Predict the 3D structure of the following.
Amino acid sequence: MNNKAILEKANAAVSNGDNEGFLSFCTEDTKWTFVGDKTLEGKQAVRAYMAIEYLEPPKFKVEYLIAEDDFVTAIGTISLKDKSGKLVDYSYSDTWRFRDGKMAELKAFVIELSSK
Protein backbone atom coordinates (compact mmCIF):
# COMPACT_ATOMS: atom_id res chain seq x y z
CA MET A 1 0.00 0.00 0.00
CA ASN A 2 1.40 3.43 -0.88
CA ASN A 3 1.59 6.29 1.61
CA LYS A 4 -1.46 8.13 0.22
CA ALA A 5 -3.56 4.98 0.57
CA ILE A 6 -2.29 4.47 4.13
CA LEU A 7 -3.29 8.02 5.10
CA GLU A 8 -6.70 7.58 3.48
CA LYS A 9 -7.29 4.36 5.44
CA ALA A 10 -6.12 5.97 8.68
CA ASN A 11 -8.39 8.98 8.17
CA ALA A 12 -11.33 6.70 7.36
CA ALA A 13 -10.76 4.86 10.65
CA VAL A 14 -10.73 8.04 12.75
CA SER A 15 -13.78 9.39 10.88
CA ASN A 16 -15.60 6.21 11.93
CA GLY A 17 -14.61 6.73 15.56
CA ASP A 18 -11.90 4.05 15.45
CA ASN A 19 -9.02 5.94 17.09
CA GLU A 20 -7.09 2.71 17.77
CA GLY A 21 -7.48 1.76 14.12
CA PHE A 22 -6.01 5.13 13.19
CA LEU A 23 -3.16 4.72 15.69
CA SER A 24 -2.27 1.34 14.19
CA PHE A 25 -0.98 3.30 11.18
CA CYS A 26 1.37 5.42 13.39
CA THR A 27 4.84 4.57 14.64
CA GLU A 28 5.27 4.18 18.41
CA ASP A 29 7.44 7.31 18.45
CA THR A 30 5.13 9.36 16.22
CA LYS A 31 5.52 13.10 16.69
CA TRP A 32 2.73 15.58 15.99
CA THR A 33 3.53 19.30 15.82
CA PHE A 34 0.59 21.69 15.71
CA VAL A 35 2.40 24.83 14.56
CA GLY A 36 1.92 27.68 17.03
CA ASP A 37 0.20 25.41 19.56
CA LYS A 38 1.66 22.16 20.88
CA THR A 39 3.75 19.10 20.09
CA LEU A 40 2.74 15.55 20.97
CA GLU A 41 5.48 12.93 21.28
CA GLY A 42 4.66 9.23 21.12
CA LYS A 43 1.58 7.20 20.40
CA GLN A 44 0.33 7.43 24.01
CA ALA A 45 0.35 11.26 23.87
CA VAL A 46 -1.60 11.16 20.60
CA ARG A 47 -4.07 8.65 22.10
CA ALA A 48 -4.67 10.98 25.08
CA TYR A 49 -5.11 13.98 22.74
CA MET A 50 -7.64 12.11 20.60
CA ALA A 51 -9.63 11.06 23.68
CA ILE A 52 -10.09 14.74 24.58
CA GLU A 53 -10.33 16.42 21.17
CA TYR A 54 -12.32 13.80 19.27
CA LEU A 55 -15.34 13.56 21.59
CA GLU A 56 -17.17 12.75 18.36
CA PRO A 57 -15.38 11.58 15.23
CA PRO A 58 -14.02 14.49 13.17
CA LYS A 59 -15.45 15.17 9.73
CA PHE A 60 -12.78 15.64 7.06
CA LYS A 61 -13.09 17.15 3.62
CA VAL A 62 -9.79 16.60 1.82
CA GLU A 63 -9.36 19.00 -1.08
CA TYR A 64 -5.82 17.98 -2.07
CA LEU A 65 -3.69 14.96 -1.27
CA ILE A 66 -0.13 15.31 -2.55
CA ALA A 67 2.56 12.63 -2.17
CA GLU A 68 6.28 12.67 -2.81
CA ASP A 69 8.90 10.29 -1.45
CA ASP A 70 8.20 9.74 2.28
CA PHE A 71 5.80 12.69 2.55
CA VAL A 72 2.06 13.14 2.06
CA THR A 73 0.36 16.52 2.39
CA ALA A 74 -3.38 16.78 2.95
CA ILE A 75 -5.15 20.12 2.57
CA GLY A 76 -8.78 20.60 3.43
CA THR A 77 -11.27 21.29 6.19
CA ILE A 78 -12.07 19.46 9.39
CA SER A 79 -15.09 19.89 11.65
CA LEU A 80 -14.90 19.05 15.35
CA LYS A 81 -17.27 19.51 18.25
CA ASP A 82 -15.86 21.66 21.03
CA LYS A 83 -16.38 20.99 24.73
CA SER A 84 -19.73 22.82 24.68
CA GLY A 85 -20.97 20.60 21.82
CA LYS A 86 -20.73 23.31 19.14
CA LEU A 87 -19.43 22.21 15.74
CA VAL A 88 -16.32 24.22 14.81
CA ASP A 89 -14.83 24.26 11.29
CA TYR A 90 -11.11 24.51 10.63
CA SER A 91 -8.96 24.79 7.54
CA TYR A 92 -5.87 22.59 7.72
CA SER A 93 -2.70 21.60 5.99
CA ASP A 94 -1.13 18.41 7.32
CA THR A 95 2.23 17.15 6.15
CA TRP A 96 2.97 13.58 7.19
CA ARG A 97 6.38 11.92 7.08
CA PHE A 98 6.24 8.16 6.68
CA ARG A 99 8.78 5.62 7.89
CA ASP A 100 8.52 1.93 7.00
CA GLY A 101 4.89 2.28 5.88
CA LYS A 102 3.73 4.09 9.03
CA MET A 103 3.01 7.71 9.90
CA ALA A 104 6.05 8.88 11.88
CA GLU A 105 5.64 12.64 12.00
CA LEU A 106 2.95 15.26 11.44
CA LYS A 107 3.38 18.99 10.96
CA ALA A 108 -0.09 20.55 11.07
CA PHE A 109 -1.24 24.07 10.35
CA VAL A 110 -4.80 24.42 11.65
CA ILE A 111 -6.82 27.65 11.51
CA GLU A 112 -10.36 28.08 12.84
CA LEU A 113 -12.71 29.38 10.18
CA SER A 114 -14.78 32.32 11.33
CA SER A 115 -18.52 31.75 11.25
CA LYS A 116 -20.49 34.12 9.07
